[in-house]
Amino acid sequence: xxxxxxxLRKPFSQSxxxxxxxxxxxxxxVNPLWQLFRFLVLNAKMLRMVRKH
Length: 53
Description:
This protein has 2 helices and no strands. By secondary structure, it is mainly α. The relative contact order is 0.07. The mean pLDDT is 86.
């Protein structure tokens, strides 16, 4: 039987850590004006979907 050899994993390699948000991403997450804009865009999309049915 030919079994595939398991790939060796290195502990604490880069793939074990989650991606870190950039400064811009962190800023946009707490910016009230950006949040209001995204809220309005999302609501417009939902209204468009509801009106179609």
